[in-house]
Amino acid sequence: xxxxxxxxxxxxxxxxxxxxxxxxxxxxxxxxxxxxxxxxxxxxxxxxxxxxxxxxxxxxxxxxxxxxxxxxxxxxxxxxxxxxxxxxxxxxxxxxxxxxxxxxxxxxxxxxxxxxxxxxxxxxxxxxxxxxxxxxxxxxxxxxxxxxxxxxxxxxxxxxxxxxxxxxxxxxxxxxxxxxxxxxxxxxxxxxxxxxxxxxxxxxxxxxxxxxxxxxxxxxxxxxxxxxxxxxxxxxxxxxxxxxxxxxxxxxxxxxxxxxxxxxxxxxxxxxxxxxxxxxxxxxxxxxxxxxxxxxxxxxxxxxxxxxxxxxxxxxxxxxxxxxxxxxxxxxxxxxxxxxxxxxxxxxxxxxxxxxxxxxxxxxxxxxxxxxxxxxxxxxxxxxxxxxxxxxxxxxxxxxxxxxxxxxxxxxxxxxxx
Length: 418
Ligand SMILES: *[C@@H]1O[C@H](CO)[C@@H](O)[C@H](O)[C@H]1NC(C)=O
Description:
- It contains 19 helices and eight strands.
- The chain is of the alpha/beta class.
- It has two domains: 17-147, no CATH class; 157-416, 3-Layer(aba) Sandwich (Rossmann fold), CATH 3.40.50.1820.
- The strands form two sheets. A six-stranded parallel β-sheet has the order 2-1-3-4-5-8, with helices on both faces. It has a two-stranded antiparallel sheet with strand order 6-7.
- Strand 1 (157-160), helix 8 and strand 2 (187-189) form a beta-alpha-beta unit.
- The model is unreliable at 1-15 and 133-152 (pLDDT under 50).
- The structure holds 2-acetamido-2-deoxy-beta-D-glucopyranose.
- 2-acetamido-2-deoxy-beta-D-glucopyranose binds at residues 369, 371-372.
- Residues 369, 371-372 line the site of 2-acetamido-2-deoxy-beta-D-glucopyranose (NAG).
């Protein structure tokens, strides 16, 4: 008797496993991943509910299954875009419409067939990815078989370094090498002037003009490309994006950038460039001498906001704070994503909340979140519309200024570098 029970139990386990394999094989076939990923590495079983109800094609259930699959099969780079997609009501409505249309057209045939259900889910996983982030499937560092999918179809990448830095600094060289290695695409750091000194002493307008000329001269940036700005480089990147006409920026990414301005500068203690800078700073934030320096372009004293509006040599225009330039709004709405990295322990960008477009309320020390500022409430740059479309990705990193690990680059940056 006991032996029989044992055998029965064993055969049940086997058939369940076969069922799961049929299902997972279906998912991988549907997602066109069958030759790239071993179904057995996925630890996913359809719920009992699935098996009893024969895979009801209800939209809500379908979405839950999609998410479970991405989690359990460790499709990490699918998970984030899908999560983003799910937080955008508009995009979810669009996806659901597609789903209902497909159902109406009879594209959900025999759902009692577990392999078929898997295939349909797999195909929809791909469809979702396409809607959320076309490249997201290409990269996963935990499953080498998915890495094999990475090809040179990633767009070229251009990045700008931070203040007092140069493209030849080892950290920027390493950053470029890493992206090149992971994405197999063209990556370059465009230098302005002589690097470190010019980043402080050249006005933001001059920096952006020079950058624009250099970008336009590089044949790799004639088509669509992804643009990254690190720290002050984010101001340069935004300047190039908004002022350099004819460029096709796909995703714009700022990493620890003072996009709403700064009201203090970290001390600048050594060398001639610092003494010029410090002398100019003593003349006042809105003196023409200070405005003519790189950082002068984005200094914003909340106690002199009206002076800032009048005298700011760069940021007030860039942020549409003085008057609305519809072209800027149209440009932002044309982006795939605007990804903003914020570092919780940042002591270089003051206030650090600027990295997510937060800032002090005028004449006060009250910190306003990105969605409480005049800029957002009055929709100066169309951020409300971008949010409605799920185009702004606010990424929080619990570390000091621009202190990203390789894992964080993999997880939060690579997916947006298609
Ligand atoms: C701002 O956004 C946060 C987080 O998304 C939300 O909790 C808060 O209610 C929003 N505030 C306003 C004024 O919309």
